[in-house]
Specification:
By secondary structure, the protein is mostly helical. The two termini are about 55 Å apart. It is built from 13 helices and no strands.
């Protein structure tokens, strides 16, 4: 049975900031003790079919990434099998490992790291096999290399590939004792370098501008959702409509994620010019979520609410077309005093477009 805990409030006069702090501490204690908080937003479990439907869309980065992986790995497999490479699976395996980089620059770094570490790993394997270990000694060497691989794989990919290469060569050589170790070393080096080049080429050629082209549309969508959310916050309690808060949170996360990916595109897409507007939209979005959670909703005239709607529509269209909004003024009467953070964010969006 959960024990209810309460935040001790000191006697005497308590400021507004202290009351807010005590209320937040009480929410933490309620969560720790298992007591439900009546103000806490109810979490709705979404159907897995909804996530699958959203992923199977041309606008979904998940679908584009899966399609890119499928095309590159199919080409790598056909290339390796068609030319008759020994241990041909090393080529698509290297291509998939290189493509784990989220951007072109990160993929280039992984390709260089994997190729260089393969060379060093081959040298380590040659040093181990120089003594021609047999029987239990081979098993002991494999166990040690696998242990080092597991220790480093969660810390540093670069060091992990060293032991991965050495272990793979040791296992391959022990299974084909009649083959020369030089043959496996040459095959490993060739396959890894070719696979890395195929993965890098696929990343650079397939949808390389996807994030930067999608960025204005995402920014416009976030601004529109924020405008709808702000209108609901400013409406009287009797006329409020339900709003999908989860969708706004996801949109804010997607906007920042696509911006980070756009910065890593090659050739450079100059997406950094949109950063002031994106930073303003992020600030505004989280300010609105905070106002919604803590019920900081000033009541203003409905004429001002309509002006807010028109202002957001103007900025959303400007973000989509990457032009200056028709009306960049964000001085909304009635909320500028209590919602200075929201007003500053509005102005940053207008100035950044």
């Amino acid at each position: 049975m959960a024990v209810k805990m309460e935040t001790p409030i000191p006697s005497g006069s308590v400021t507004k900031a202290q009351k807010k702090l005590y209320a937040q501490l009480q929410e933490v204690l309620n969560a720790a003790s298992g007591e439900p908080d009546q103000k806490t937003e109810q979490i709705r479990l979404r159907s897995p079919f909804l996530f699958l439907r959203n992923a199977l869309s041309w606008d979904s980065p998940v679908f584009i990434r899966a399609l890119k992986y499928g095309i590159v790995l199919m080409v790598a497999s056909l290339f390796a099998g068609g030319l008759g490479f020994h241990c041909s699976y090393w080529i698509p395996l290297s291509a998939s490992a290189v493509m784990l980089g989220t951007t072109v620059l990160f993929t280039l770094h992984r390709a260089i790291q994997r190729s260089a570490d393969t060379i060093i790993g081959v040298i380590i394997a040659a040093a181990v096999l120089y003594g021609r270990p047999e029987g239990v000694y081979i098993a002991l060497c494999v166990a040690v290399l696998q242990c080092l691989l597991e220790l480093f794989i969660v810390r540093n990919y670069v060091f992990a590939v060293l032991f991965l290469t050495a272990n793979a060569l040791l296992i391959a050589e022990s299974m084909h004792a009649n083959e020369s170790i030089v043959y496996f070393m040459t095959a490993r080096l060739t396959d890894v370098i070719l696979g890395s080049l195929i993965g890098l080429a696929g990343t650079m050629l397939l949808w390389r501008r996807f994030s930067s082209k999608r960025l204005p549309e995402l920014l416009s969508g976030v601004i529109r959702r924020e405008g709808e959310f702000l209108q609901i916050l400013l409406m009287p309690d009797t006329g409020k409509k339900p709003f999908d808060v989860h969708r706004l949170r996801v949109s804010l996360i997607q906007l920042r994620d696509e911006y980070d990916k756009a910065l890593g595109e090659y050739p450079k897409s100059h997406s950094d010019v949109l950063w002031p507007a994106i930073a303003g939209a992020e600030h505004l979005g989280y300010s609105l979520l905070s106002a919604y959670k803590y019920n900081r909703r000033p009541a203003i005239d409905q004429k001002e609410v309509r002006r807010v709607a028109a202002l957001f529509d103007s900025m959303a269209e400007a973000a989509l077309k990457q032009t200056q909004p028709a009306d960049g003024s964000a001085d909304v009467t009635g909320i500028s005093k209590d919602q200075r953070g929201i007003i500053r964010a509005l102005q940053r969006i207008a100035d950044g477009l």
